[in-house]
């Protein structure tokens, strides 16, 4: 059985499903050793609207993950989304303390200065992501510690969320007996799992389409430059199918997953599907072309709105790598082809990568956020261990020096 401190659990609380992924830290990286998934009942457009139903879904997903991994789960890294999430770019300037070289203390001060923006009382900052540092007008610096200079500037991306939404996620997890180590923006987690360093450097748009929201994150020169969340997702397609084909919503979801296609030109005219009717009426046989013609306008609308966001961001000309699609709704046939038509950029599906263990089980865009949360957690753990080691070494040196002084004087 793995030691508790070597286990990291990502909890993706989505609109359509709650997913828990258990990762174990090994010498080679991270191995996925357990996964639990359960339909989500208490969320709407990425926000908790029913605490009891959400708690029940989390419990079921956690129990399933515990059973597969053979461990007890006590703490998680939870994802957050919803159109209340806002991202802004900020800039901070400080004088270097000893006017010789930049220290960790200076970096902390300059990030604090960049963070000092007016944020309403009902919101909280969940991420402050450094983009670049400028030392005495020398820009493009990623790691300024140890550099000589008298003036230090930092450009950062600040992501804030509604305080109540974040509190409700923590409350739901606590009611299941879980501690929340950190709350992470879901598209940020997805990007950790699906994007390569080269894509981030060249400039890329990640689009994470879930059940209730479509999340957008833009990278340029290796840093996050823009984030946005739209209240449109896979559930809207399901509703369109239910109305268009006059079938219950649960059956519409099954039809979408089994026969759905986002581009009607890819469907042969002779293909048919069986559609259950409402009110006990008998099933009907319809052309699959009709289903594609219902889905295509909705998907096109989602992509058009995302394209508008990309244009609004002002980074349209720096995304040389193109667009990466991830999230459960992007599994529909024809999604990348339709996206290429709308965006006029190369498009690919984003699958989780960089993990060992049960790779085949999680190799799907629907698990990108869960895997990304585990990766985020492992990086956090590694950073804190390194800091503790540095602090420990510093403390020992201090003790030794103190003893020398006592002996000499």
Give a structural overview.
The chain is α/β, with parallel strands linked by helices. Helix content is 39%, strand content 30%. The chain has eleven helices and 19 strands. It has a six-stranded mixed beta sheet with strand order 11-6-1-2-3-19, with helices on both faces. Helix 1 (51-69) packs across helix 3 (163-175) and helix 8 (288-313) packs across helix 9 (335-343). The chain is globular and about 80 Å long. The protein starts with 6 loop residues before the first strand and ends with a helix.
| Class computed from helices, strands and strand pairing | alpha/beta
The biggest sheet, with number of strands, parallel, antiparallel or mixed sense and barrel status, is: 6 strands, mixed
CATH architecture of one domain: 2-Layer Sandwich
End-to-end separation in angstroms reads 53 Å
CATH class of one domain: Alpha Beta
H/E series, N to C? EEEEEHEEHEEEHEHHEEEHHEEHEHEEHH
